[in-house]
Design goal:
This protein is of the alpha/beta class. It has 15 helices and 18 strands. The chain starts with a helix and ends in an 8-residue tail after the last helix.
Length: about 525
Amino acid sequence: MFPTIFGNQGNGPVLSPASDIPMLSIVWLWKFWLARGKLHILAGPPSTGKTTLAMALAATITNGGTERGVWPDGTLARFGRIVIWTCEDAHEDTVIPRLEAAGANRNHVFMLSETSENGRRRPFDFGRDLPRLEAKVKELGDVALIIIDSIAQVVSGNSNSNTQVRKDLDPLVVFAERTGCAILGLTHVNKGSKKKDPLDRVNGSTAFGAVARLVWIVARDESDRSGDGVSRSVLVRAKSNLGPTDGGLSYQITPIDLPAQGGVANTSKIEWGEPLPGAPKDILDDAEGGSAPVGDDRKQDGMDFLSELLSVGPMPSEEIRVRTENAGLSWATVRRAADAIGVNKYRPLGMKNWWWALDCGQQAWPQSTAQAGAMGFSGGFGSGAAFGFGAAYAAGSEPKSIWSTASPTQWRSPHQPQATPLGDTAWISKNGEQVEQVEQVEQVEQHEQVASTADRMDAGMWKHMVDCCLTRYQSRARRVDDDEYQVRESIVDYVLETNVELVDAEWIASAKSLLLQGEFWRKQ
């Protein structure tokens, strides 16, 4: 009887035993945020940088497998190509500048606007042209993400109709599954939807949120906690059928001018901030209600709590959150107290987690897993180059260099040009916030010898550059006809280009010569 029921002959439903269906894992582009073969929705109010954020994702993926392809949580991205369809922004003066500002590899980004049919071109139509796009995507290969701005344009009829929205999105879901591409559709939120459930904010039919496997919501942070007048926003997952939703990210949109044909392109890029704990609604409520006053007593309690907690040195934010709960304080109160007393928040090189400190000029960061464990931190370390120095910004009119042109032996903050001693502590200033990086110098004879010979590079800087060179050297594709010197030279050139924002040809030449002559190559 069972073979007849489960067989595929004849008419009627086909029932397949679950034991015959393979069990597969989700293929993540960005773990718990962006999954291959799934539909995602990104919704937010105007001027919160939805398109700019999408371009930041594109930049990360197109640089996957390199030091520039790092997600906001510090994990490395896998390489992939990007397809972008937009009906809201012009390619030449809006989308392309944003891609360039984000650092995308534009050789791997493809703009979709038209379909060629019978020798003529017409606008691309999602209702008619998905099979053709599927063929093109498979022909191109390695397409990881398709960005659609806006997803409402995919709907041919009433975007408030559940039936119509499902009818038009279902082919897109099938397309994602067949091609293995992640699809990110951008849209707006409903007016007056503050304080509502995050998923209810998505504009149009509830089917948009129902059909998508992950729904992202962005909102403007109205508190201006830092008091610098810079507009900031938050990103949360309102829904995920594939993983957790707790936790979010902060970010700000930074204006940037790029040289362009006919003048200057005024564009912007995303600068990621520290991760935010809590449920999606709590994070959104905290951001959108941030201007609400905090009781003086509670705020003072938070200030006293942090001052005592951080008086012994920097601490990972995760540990601070745990102690905040144990002290009976709310995280929102402590965050505002941190801004009031000038707590510095930053992520050391090679670490995925953020740290808080009262005075960066006095405290040193842990530089090894053992040191971190001794300070109550159990997180791991990635490559030191994972958070490339090329993204560093000097404040004010100081030189945009993390290795000071005034004194190349010092790697320091422009805010403390004389007070920072030479030694193990290193600084970066990013967007007006001092970011302390520490290199605990290993007592290795090679490092001391080179630092002494050059007299232009301290041992901490040397060690980091050696680590970067070795990372690329060990991961390179090897060929029989490789010229060893050329291989090393190309690696050194890349490391210097991506890690040094410094216009000093003599210094660059000296550093290159020292690296090429280093003993570390011969030990590989």
